[in-house]
């Protein structure tokens, strides 16, 4: 699905001491499966995710997504890909505070409200949220429920790729387990990229990619 | 690739932020109501006074000339002789004027003044006192009929139209302007008349200056020209002519310009306060939604889609405010008319097209001004990766 070649991301380009967030490496990612990207803070894993998800443009290198070069796409095309084919679970859940759980899921939906509403409820139910939680605002939900709502929002359009940045960081062990089970289940048909520095949650992942100082720990091409 | 709908619902925000949206709607609505009703109340002066001046000066003109304008030697004649000659000249002029086709009658009449107070401001209306036998002709000239009471029969008795009676809280048998004329004039009847009008029989016991009251067919706009044709040159400094031409000037100077200035100031004041407060409140609201829009942008909504959703929210707010305002105004003008306008016998106009157009234009301008914080908020939108860059 992704064919990444010599991906390089340099921060502070104008300064003499450049920071290599991604040091130039190749990587191929399959169409489906749970891929864990692991590494300490500052190792470049979030930057990699943002580059793959078109939120950031790498300084150098190529990212082919199903044969299309993401870095050369116009803004409109990148927006369309993000809406149609990608789903996002951010480190902070970024739920809209004034909306109910259901509305927070629907907000990302591209279908009509009625259709999206039933799909949103279906997703929330399957993630263990009761009907009485559907109408609650994020401030009235527990941390685990918020994160599951955020995952439901990411899945509302059945994305081909789901990016999850530290999806269990703010959760207790039980909730972290539930969230990971949801992602593993989704990974049976789609590609799920989970970024974390907690190796224990990646038990059962199809592949674990380790990063260190902007490089893959086993294959750093450029540094 | 399938292109999905890029629409962000505006109703989501409105439905979930009723209090915030209500604050905007209520403030816009109140300003609309306040501006319109202020104009409505102020316009009662215009609606009342302009017809008085313009309609009455078509039907009746008043001429008060100085002795010197008649060619009298005011410096050397003793006052008794001057008064006698002055009366004589007025009567001669009256006879000359009566011969004209466009003039039906001329009276050398005592003039009383009826005060008419609008909701804001007031003016006085001249009221001729003529011999008893002339009163029916005078009433006919004004299309006035006796509604209540009786016609004047003795000196000092007068009749007044219904609106003037209401405006001054008079009832039949009240003394007319007791503060000014004491117990000289008494109201004995009420007239049904479209104009503000009254007349009576002069009082010999009361020393009240006289003027020529000219009943014309409405074609005389400038009485000075008529007098010029009769050999009298009117000098503005010494002579007073109340005719249609004077009426036009009076309306322009004393009503339209004065009201225009005061309503303009009130309007600018209200709109300025509204604009500043709305700008501050709205900017705060926008700031609170920064993360929300960053999220939308990150999950694939374009800035244009976000902008349209904000614009729809704003339009909803403005339209709701104008609709609510229209309902409140409709009820208020009827109530104000019933409680304040009608009891005072003054006039008003419910539908102020000019004011509505001004308010609508101002609200469009306000909508334009609010694009500044909206545009700035859109400019500040970043995708979530940029927020994370700042955090870590």
Labels describing this entry:
heterodimer, A: alpha/beta, six-stranded mixed beta sheet, four-stranded antiparallel beta sheet, 10 strands, 31% helix, B: 392 residues, alpha+beta, 13 helices, elongated, disordered N terminus
Describe the structure.
The complex is a heterodimer of chains A (223) and B (392). Chain A is of the alpha/beta class and 223 residues long. Chain A has 7 helices and 10 strands. In chain A, helix 6 (143-155) runs parallel beside helix 7 (173-186). With 392 residues, chain B is α+β, with helices and mostly antiparallel strands. Helix content of chain B is 56%, strand content 15%. Chain B has 13 helices and 9 strands. Chain B has helices spanning 11-16, 18-59, 79-98, 135-141, 162-167, 178-181, 223-229, 244-288, 290-298, 303-341, 353-369, 371-380, 384-391, and strands at 60-64, 103-117, 122-129, 145-149, 157-161, 186-192, 198-200, 210-216, 240-242. A 5-stranded antiparallel beta sheet of chain B has the order 3-2-8-1-9. In chain B, strand 2 and strand 3 (122-129) form a beta hairpin. In chain B, helix 2 packs antiparallel against helix 8 and helix 2 (18-59) crosses helix 10 (303-341). Residues 1-5 of chain B have low confidence and may be disordered. The interface between A and B is medium-sized, with 33 and 27 residues.
Distance between the termini of chain A: 26 Å
Radius of gyration over C-alpha positions of chain A, nearest whole angstrom:
18 Å
Biggest sheet strand order of chain B reads 3-2-8-1-9
Helix-strand sequence of chain A: EEEHEEHEHHHHEHEEE
The quaternary state of the protein chains shown equals heterodimer
Number of β-strand runs of chain B: 9
Distance between the termini of chain B: 35 Å
Largest interface: A-B, 33 and 27 residues
Strand and helix order of chain B: HHEHEEHEEHHEEEHEHHHHHH
Percent strand of chain A equals 25-35%
Sheet with the most strands: spatial strand order of chain A: 6-7-8-3-9-10
Largest sheet of chain B: 5 strands, antiparallel
The count of strands of chain A amounts to: 10
Task: Determine the number of helices of chain B (DSSP H or I, runs of at least 4 residues).
Answer: 13
As a whole number of angstroms, the C-alpha radius of gyration of chain B is 32 Å
Q: Which ranges of chain B are low-confidence, i.e. pLDDT below 50, for 5 or more consecutive residues?
A: 1-5
Approximate shape of chain A: globular
Tell me, rounded to a whole number, the average pLDDT of chain A: 86
